[in-house]
Amino acid sequence: MSAGDIGKRSKKEERHMLWQSVKKNKVCYLMLAPFMIFFVVFTIVPVIMSLPMGFTDFNMVQPPEFVGLSNYTTLFLSDKIFIRSIRVTIVFALFTGPVSYVLCFLLAWLINELPPKLRTVFTLIFYAPSMANVYTVWQLIFSGDMNGYINSFLMNAGLINSPIQWLTDGNYVLGATIVVQLWISLGAGFLALRAGFQNIDRTMYEAGAIEGIRTRWQELVYIVIPSMGPQLMFAAVMQIVSSFTAGTVAQNLVGFPSTDYKAHTIMTHAYDYGWVRYEMGYAAAICMVLFIVMFAMNRLISRILSRYMD
Amino acid sequence: MAQVNTARLRASNRQAGRKIGGTAAIFIFLTLLGLFMLMPIYLTVIMSIKPVEELFIFPPKMYAIRPTLDNFREMFSVLHQNRVPFSRYVFNSLFVTVTVTAAQCVFSSMAAFVLAKCRFPGSRVINGIIVISLLYQSNVIYIMQYIVMAKLHMIDTYAALIFPAIASPMGLFLMRQSIGQVPDSMIEAAKVDGAGLFRICWQIVMPNQKPALMTLIIFAFQAAWNIQAGSVVFQEQYKTLPTVVSQAASAGLARAGVAMAAAVFMLVPPIVIFMLAQRQVIETMAHSGIKE
User: Domain span at residue A35?
Assistant: First the structure.
């Protein structure tokens, strides 16, 4: 028997074995099916259909026309506002991402240290902002006239003499947006971490006490964090998504476009070209760039987390 | 032996090993931060019960001098001017929300169990796709979704509101992460006892997953409750509450007040669900846990 024969046979065998293991696991596929059917039809298919759009000129009226890489060359070589939006997005994500991630974990842990009755109340208090859709009240809080809550507070306190235009002054728009984003950012990640804390087996704490753990800090470092890996990973992914794709906050708060494009994120730029100018091909290219950035970010963070977890 | 028992006793009463002062400090810190977090929501509620003339008082008051329900009345009167009775919107929203939440919980739990605990051809690829689909956000997707729905003749039906919301990669990801923590030995033991995967999932794994499942219910309810019908449903009889309430908010006379009333009105059901679900989580923790 020659080496080639063995190669052929093992390939055939491999296929046979694959089929065997598919058959052996048919219950798995059955249990996966209901989710996957909806997922494929309403997420995967639209995503695949959207992938080539970045290489086209598409205005939603005429059929898309293939233009090669021209969207991407325009984007990086001549779209000055896009370059600016990259900078805004990075500043925004660097501020909101890590701060809110640490806040999510810290608050979830501190709440867990309270008696059970109080936990529900505090979880609700910190989670409520992400449920509420109250941009209007933030506009009133930051309002540029003397009636704004912040302005009237600062003026009564004698700290400023004339009202500050929080939402239209180029120096403040990004800051105001970051504040509101942080306020609503204790969302999915925070709640998942709370659930993770509830999931830790009580016998772990008991074993810890026997092993000589005495303080909250020791418990946090030796018991809690090592058993929260999956939830920390979930929260990290959620954080990446929410800090990089933020755009609605700025649009609702400081208007669109913001003064000097100071709060103009990549997502806002995509919104501009997609839904204002109907240049869908160009908008798709913008989203593609954002996806690649987020994908790289996710790789980096999961590598760091998995190094510290096990 | 006696030594171990005292340690167990102390540990099981978790407050015993720690200082009361520390807990009090945490409580005070969280209360102060919590007041700050609640401020905008408090102001929203206050403004929703302020009469029009009070909205423009300087300096702005932190309370309503003469509280009134006019804003709510105005919102409902705008809503009642529609051709379709108000109860129809309530029904639509409840129907869509309950269906989506139930389907999402059942389907994601099963899929998450299989993806977390079984190795089969394709499992790694699907696990990867779930995370990638969370990261891929494109404005073109909605157009493509519309095209898919149009091809399936779903536009202007309940299906257009319900079906796309059922398979949420976030919900699946959450459940998968949590089920992954269940010790393999527990599942192996059940297999040895002759239980099938379906039974292992629902009778052994899921009863231990209440914290994650309740969190999923909160997410699912919240997302489904806020489904905007605007672009996939054009007939008035299929529209949901968020669509018409935001219409009412922008049509009201004193717009700020009515908008606040609408926001408060829409916030109540998710908060109720949140309280119910969270209480479940904490009650189960009192007498169960994952045992290896």
Answer: 1-56
The pTM of the full predicted model, rounded to 2 decimals, is 0.86
Determine the structural domain holding residue B117 and report its residue range. Answer: 73-287
- What are the tens digits of pLDDT across the range B267-289? 899 999 998 988 887 665 544 44
Looking at the DSSP assignment, which residues form a beta bridge with residue A65? A57
Residues B89 and B174 reside in one and the same domain:
yes
Q: Number of folded domains in chain B? A: 2
Asked if B120 lies within 8 A of A25 by C-beta distance, the reply is yes
**Using a CB cutoff of 8 Å and minimum separation of 24, what contacts does A288-294 make?**
A288/A54, A288/B138, A289/A72, A289/A75, A290/A89, A290/A244, A290/A245, A290/A266, A290/B137, A291/B135, A291/B136, A291/B137, A291/B138, A293/A244, A294/A240, A294/A241, A294/A244, A294/A245, A294/B135
Average pLDDT rounded to a whole number, residues B31-45: 88
pLDDT of residue A309: 64
B274 in a structural domain: yes
**pLDDT at position B16 over 50:** no
- Note whether A196 contacts B: Cβ–Cβ < 8 A: yes
Share of chain A above pLDDT 70, in %: 96
Domain end, chosen from A40, A56, A72, is at: A56
Same domain, A273 and A124: yes
| Size of the A and B interface in Cβ pairs below 8 Å | 298
Q: Is B138 close to A287, i.e. CB distance below 8 A?
A: yes
Q: Is A214 on the interface with B (CB under 8 A)?
A: yes
A99 interface with B at CB cutoff 8 Å: no
A66 and A11 assigned to the same domain: no
Of A53, A113, A122, the CB nearest to B34: A122
- Which of B29, B31, B61, B135 is the best substitution to test chain A (most A C-beta atoms within 10 A)? B135
Chain B residue with minimum CA distance to A246: B137
Domain count, chain A: 2
